[in-house]
Amino acid sequence: MSGTSLDGISAAVVRFDRSDDGRFTYELLGMSVRSYDAAQRQRLATALIGTTPREYCRLAFDLGDWLADAAIAAIADAGVGRADVAAIASHGQTVWHEPGHSTWQFGQPAVIAERTGIDVVSDFRVRDVAAAGQGAPLVPAADALLFAHPTDWRALQNLGGIGNVTIVPPGGVTISTRAFDTGPGVVVIDGVTRVVAPGLEYDVDGKLARSGTPIDAVVRHVLADPYFASAPPKSTGRELFDPTFISAFIERCRAEKPAASPGDIVATAVSLTAASIADAFSRFVPEPVRELVVSGGGAENPALVDAITSALPSVVVRRFSDVFFDGEAKEAVAFALLGYLHLVGEPGNLPSVTGARGPRILGQRTPA
Questions:
Q1: In this predicted structure, what is the pLDDT of residue 22?
Q2: Do 212 and 339 belong together in one domain?
């Protein structure tokens, strides 16, 4: 999995089993987290805003190599033979996502198959979009099938580049599971940090945010964007929170508070993510949720977790890694499940989440 935060690739080796009543069990056998270096991150970031056909072509193959490296490392960590791996499920990197029309993820699956000698399942989002769905979020299938609470409603909030929440009923009944993108996860936080604190790729341990005070007027201005008021199903991405958005956000912070410190601006970005989640709960979550489990890179930012906790006083906020396993592996595990569902010929999307015309088998298979 390579996500919208562009921080790196997470890979997981998972063994799935099913009981007679169809319930899933899983065992996380190994994992690998490989950070992008500055040059890799810059190439990916440039691709998201536009580059040459030559660079798109070369980058798709190079990313296939990087994804293969991550898969090989995870398999080594798990201590299993490659012949024992049924398939590698690769999400790749989203280059463009336009709900209602198209979506594009790349990272050549043929390169992964050649490097590993293992079948690859990739391109998971396109079938849902072709069926008039949002193509996102797709992780909710795993949230429902693997991470439900046995007796209570549970919300699972991903804090990658983009934030998305899954509302899971007791026991993980998929037909009643809902999910949507809440807005920015860490994409704005990381983006402003790189501008106002040159040399930092992200706000380490939330220290910069903790040194500042949020500028509430800026948060209110951003939340007036029509996206936040639009009803689910819905999804968003870096297409909205792009470099132009980051520049305008910083300028507005400085206009509202001319003496704004870097900490004030980063704290405002943190407040935006927390406020967007609280706003989504207020507008679109009538279910009796009492627990919010946060995962993704943002879950490792104490300032952000504290801000979410303050914004949702009636909900217990817990980190995914404190409830299940290392949160860095969660999305990789989710796509492993989607790969498994492809292999057994079962749908991987939830129409109640994406708005697709119906259940669809997701992904395309590249034989080894």
A1: 81
A2: no
